Amino acid sequence: MWTALLGTERVSLEPGEGMSRADMLDLRSSESARAALRCCGCKSPVHTRNIGGELDLLLVFVHNPGGGKLCRELGFHTDESDEHLMLKAGLARAVRRAGWTADLEVYAGRCRTDVLATSPQGRHWALEAQLATLSTSDAVERTKRYEAEFGRVTWSHTKARDWATRIPCLRVDDETQSVVIDGVMTDPTGQTRADPVAVYDVVPRILHNQITYVSGGDYGYFVDIAAQGQRPGQRQRKRRPGGRGAYVRECSRTAVDLVDAGTPAGQPMGDGQFACATCRKYPARWLATRQDWDREDWLVCDTCQAQAKRFRSPITFQALRTGG
Q1: How far is CA 194 from CA 106, 116, 133, 159, 240, in A?
Q2: Looking at residue 269, what DSSP letter applies?
Q3: Tens digits of per-residue pLDDT, 18-55?
Q4: How confident is the model over 47-95, as pLDDT tens digits?
Q5: Of 311, 305, 203, 201, whose CA–CA distance to 247 is shortest?
Q6: Which of 25, 220, 259, 303 is most deeply packed, by most CB within 10 A?
């Protein structure tokens, strides 16, 4: 862990952001300070460990032998690998590059997010580093819990994962955990994978909605808007397979959704014909409330209850955010 409690004060050893080298040396040499160190989650004793080798001082916190039982019962790792720790630090640096604040190892309820990103407007985004094996059911369940506690969630992982298309996630390289090699596409249909790019570059663009997430019942991926040949913030209409009158309009500031003008009122839109800009489900379960194309028409997403109003034409609706 990068963080711990020193008495009642929360302290951090994050490289470049936490304690100075002098403070770390003082911490290691002070018996009273070492005795006062506690885990931020379970409050059990912790101590420091150097992961920098003989030539460097790079300290992290670890539970004392036999400690951390409550953390383990809640599903929190008490034996994080060096690679996992460095990936968390890399995610935090990328968040700060976006102009957001980054807090490591934030606890809320039964959740501990690796990095909690907070925008200048107070919007939260949880970033999770997952290098250990995790079942699909656990990944989906944890995502729902984290969304309830923190807001949006994005995972980073190595190796092929069964759940990679079920939750918002990025695959990073095995060796350095610093390059995104999968999970980002260059077209809305998800047929063209983006070239490898540094985590430090990808995360800020996700936070600023220049790379957006789309998902359906059995697939999900990020779409790089700029890679489609449009400027950030520029709206662009694209034809998408999946139904007559189905269009997508991508924008880094205002996402616009898909409908089929031929769908009767009260009936679900067809597969591939609609995407909710608020909850990012694709296709979302939206219902046409009425089919009067000469007046205002409204749709309601029964996944997140967002509303959509007719926009310019009978087959294009614009999402109206209800909060968040």
Answers
A1: 31, 26, 25, 17, 19
A2: P
A3: 888 888 889 988 999 989 999 998 889 999 989 877 66
A4: 998 987 766 788 999 999 888 888 887 777 777 889 999 999 999 999 9
A5: 311
A6: 259
Tokens of 309: 């109003």
What are residue 148's phi and psi, to 5 degrees? -65, -35
Q: Element (H or E) spanning 104, and its range?
A: strand 101-108
Nearest to 281 by CA among 299, 258, 310, 260: 258
- All CATH 3.40.1350.10 domain ranges of the chain, comma separated, are 80-229
Output the six-digit token pair for 143. Answer: 């995502």
- Sheet containing strand 236-239, strands side by side: 236-239, 247-250, 256-258, 313-320, 307-311, 298-301, 286-288
Q: Is 174 exposed, middle or buried (0-12, 13-18, 19+ CB in 10 A)?
A: exposed
Helix/strand/coil for 253: coil
Pairwise CA distance, residues 110 & 112, whole Å: 7
| Measured distance CA(125)–CA(129) in Å, rounded | 13
Phi and psi at residue 205, in whole multiples of 5°?
A: -75, -30
| CATH, domain range 80-229 | 3.40.1350.10
Measured between alpha carbons, how far is 240 from 274 in angstroms, rounded to an integer?
10
Q: Give the pLDDT confidence of 119-166 residue by residue, as tens digits.
A: 999 999 999 999 988 899 999 999 999 999 999 999 999 999 999 989
Lookup result for tokens 């700060």: 96
Integer angstrom CA distances of residue 56 from 50, 92, 194: 8, 21, 36
CA distance linking residue 162 with residue 189, whole number of Å: 20
How, if at all, do strands 3-6 and 37-38 pair? Answer: antiparallel
CB 206 within 8 A of CB 154: yes
Q: Which helix (H) or strand (E) holds 236?
A: strand 236-239
Which pair of tokens denotes residue 59? 């300290």
